[in-house]
Amino acid sequence: MAYRPLGRTGVEVSAVSLGTGSLGEMFGPLPEADALSLVDEALDAGINLVDTSPYYCSAEERLGKALTPAKRDGVVLATKAGRYGPTDFDFSPARIRRSLEESLRRLGTDHVDVLQLHDVEFVDLDPVLSDSVAELLRLREEGKCRFIGITGYPLGTFTRVLTEAPVDVVLTYAKGTLLDDSLTTDLLPLAEARGIGVMNAAAVALGLLSRRGTRFEQEHPAPEPVRRAAAAMVALAEEAGVDLAFLANQYAVQRSGAPTTVVGVGRREHLRSALDAVRTPIDQELLDRFLALRPPPDRRRWRVGLPQNA
Asked: Residue 171: which CATH number?
């Protein structure tokens, strides 16, 4: 496993982090014993950052069982607050505090390492960047979390977050992929100038870059040019005999520039594939064939959240 500094937090994180949506059965049934075994295998392989959320159904409860006191000390445990369902958002200070206390009980710990506001682009950003972030700072001062951050998608949202909010980390998804490199070109320079750690996620673009396709629970937010480009990549992968999801993970881990890429896994073979993506060199000639299929830069953005937050 490779380890990289997470901004100026002083923490080094594994190049691949464990995402827990699948562990919480967001995308289909997963016996608890299998979920706990996957956590053990991930930790044994050197993954040291685990990302979860109250939104991820039973994920926090299962992690509370998997992360025994002996294992907890070696884990950078990240959870979120503010999103509790597809359309259930509450970023009020009181709800953030109550949410963290509930998460701590489920996780069986007295603190988390990273506490982030979850998908803030769906609400007015002004109170989030003032009142909500102020509550995160209070919780950090109280020792309930070591670092604070914000998660979401739009570039406009993160431009404001990175320039206006005193956060330690951010998590953004589907922008360090075979389809879109705006994480590398737009967000990382801004984050690095401020010492803010960046967590990449959704290397397979919520399923678009996989043969099985998306299992996104709502209508996929990618615009038509992105979907066409993804379909062309799927066809090329079939023609070339390539595992597209594996190449997508290779690209995200090795070329996006992010310290870590969060990979959600619900099966042992998916975990092992993500781990192999760290250490298997990319075939540059093959990669270039896929990157040539990217949509134009002005056609890559998804429409997610309120229009003013884009």
From this structure: 3.20.20.100
